[in-house]
Amino acid sequence: MKRARARHKPCALKELEVSVSELGLGYESDEIVLFRYCSGTCETAVRNYDLSLKNMRLKKKIRKEKVRARPCCRPLAYDDDVSFLDTYNRYYTVNELSAKECGCV
Amino acid sequence: MKRARARHKPCALKELEVSVSELGLGYESDEIVLFRYCSGTCETAVRNYDLSLKNMRLKKKIRKEKVRARPCCRPLAYDDDVSFLDTYNRYYTVNELSAKECGCV
Fold it and tell me: Which residues are in the TGF-beta family profile domain (chains A, B) (predicted)?
């Protein structure tokens, strides 16, 4: 008997509270930030572009090229810069950390 | 001796002249269209978002979720609708077929 496949949800914005240290960007700080990210699939967002690109590939009209013939669930915009103090009391600002809006691009 | 790896070029707009039939969308027509697409890699476009998302994955803070922690080279905009006559003289219009602008989203 085959197990049911995990049902993938459509592309949407999700959030997670994490410490700055946990972000893994190299900063040591216990300050908590709201990390928002894009999660889900884009099956319903396939365009004529994607279908045609897939065919150009199959027909070897496009070869040895890095092309993506499927929409990506990605941020359409990013939140404002995030500022924090690290454990040595140094002040940092990081940009494009958290998503503001997601879409199937 | 190892063979050199293909050097991937940065994300850019490319073009190809193809017949409507070749697009593989199910239409039979010898009319030629200019199919423009996005090709290349986005290594230089990695954001704090991507690095953090990758870490959240490694730390199992995000599990069983479909997330993409790398920028995609995709159309930022599509060309105008394309119209053509098929071999039976029927008129069709297809949208979002060809890219107008590419970017690392």
Answer: 1-105
Between CA B90 and CA B68 the distance in angstroms is: 41
CA terminus-to-terminus distance, chain A? 37
Tokens of A9: 């949800």
pLDDT tens for A7-62 read: 679 999 999 999 999 999 999 999 999 999 999 999 999 999 999 999 999 999 99
> In this complex, is the C-beta atom of B48 within 8 Å of any C-beta atom belonging to chain A?
yes
Closest Cβ–Cβ partner in B6, B56, B105 for A72:
B105
Q: List domains and CATH numbers for chain B.
A: 12-44+71-104 (2.10.90.10)
For B33, the closest chain A residue by CA position comes to A52
Partner residue opposite B52 with nearest CB, options A8, A23, A49: A23
Give per-residue pLDDT as tens, B19-49: 999 999 999 999 999 999 999 999 999 999 9
Measure the CA–CA gap between B70 and A103, rounded to whole angstroms: 15
The C-alpha atoms of residue A5 and residue B81 are separated, in whole angstroms, by 37
Cα–Cα distance, A63 to B6 (Å, whole number): 12
Judge: B14–A47 Cβ closer than 8 Å, yes or no.
Answer: no
- Residue B50 DSSP SS3: helix
Residue B3's pLDDT is what? Answer: 59
